[in-house]
Amino acid sequence: MKEFISTIVQNEWFLFISGVCSIIGLCVAVFAAYKVINIQNSINIKNKSMNIKNQNIKADNSGVAAGRDINIISLNNRIKRNESAIEKILKCISDVNIDISFEKLDITPFDVCEKIDYNDIKCYKDFLDDYMESLEIIKRKVDIIMQTDLGFENKLFGYIKNKFRYSYSSEIKPDDIIRKIIDNIESDLKDNMQINLDDFAYIDCIIFYVFAKCKIFKKPPVEGH
User: Fold this and answer.
1) Do the Cβ atoms of 159 and 93 come closer than 8 Å?
2) Does residue 4 carry a pLDDT above 50?
3) Which residue has the higher pLDDT, 160 or 192?
4) Which residue has better confidence, 222 or 177?
5) Triad 82, 88, 92: Cα angle to 5°
6) Distance, CA of 125 to CA of 83 (rounded, Å)
7) Which one, of 141, 158, 146, 151, lies nearest residue 213 by Cα?
8) What gap in Å lies between CA 192 and CA 89, rounded to an integer?
9) What is the tens place of the pLDDT at every residue in 31-60?
């Protein structure tokens, strides 16, 4: 029996078949390991995807998503910057010696947008939303100053109106007149240590406030008047 087994083991075909089986077994083992690794990687990718999704959902629910955060912070900083600059400019104007002249009260109703169109002021047309947004801020700051200076709003009107008269010409485009008013005010305030160059960017908002109160430029005609 032992001799028979020994003969089979030494047979070339037996050795060949055994080798082939070993190779097939090794390939099967490698393939199985490869599949296991792929399955594990797939699970890891899915888990990461779920984590990212959960983080995004959390961000959306709590309002702290990165992009939204940046937008909110940027908007808040812009509003705060507007208020700070506008307040400084108004306070500096309040310190200017201005003779207040009382004029006849005009109660004829008008629409700001119609007045812009009537005077063909392109800068107000192009950035109307920004200018309209600034009205509330300026009004609030004017009211604060008037708590200690009751005549401040009339002083502001007189100051801007004087600049308008100085800059006005029928041969000059309305946008250029506004630009001259801005330059004139900058010249008045440039030596004031309370104001920096960035603050000057909001002078045009204060001019628009006076414009919206119908103290400069013509009011559109109203039927029946």
Assistant:
1) yes
2) no
3) 160
4) 177
5) 145
6) 22
7) 158
8) 10
9) 555 554 555 555 454 454 444 444 443 434
Q: Average of pLDDT values for 199-206?
A: 91
**pLDDT for position 167:** 94
Tell me which amino acid residue 95 is.
D
User: Measuring CA to CA, which residue among 170, 164, 211 is closest to residue 184?
Assistant: 164
pLDDT tens digits for 174-201? 999 999 999 999 999 888 878 888 888 8
Q: Name residue 128's amino acid.
A: L
Using DSSP, state whether 102 is helix, strand or coil. coil
Burial class of 206 by CB neighbour count within 10 A (0 to 12, 13 to 18, 19+): buried
The reported pTM is: 0.64
* Closest C-alpha among 101, 78, 198, 84 to residue 159: 101
Burial of 90 (C-beta count, 10 Å sphere; 0-12/13-18/19+): buried
Q: How far apart are CA 51 and CA 177, in angstroms?
A: 59
Angle between helices 66-94 and 174-189 in degrees, nearest 10: 70
Three-state secondary-structure class, residue 64 = coil
DSSP, res 140: H
Separation between Cα atoms, residue 93 and residue 89, nearest integer Å: 6
Residue 110: the pLDDT is 83
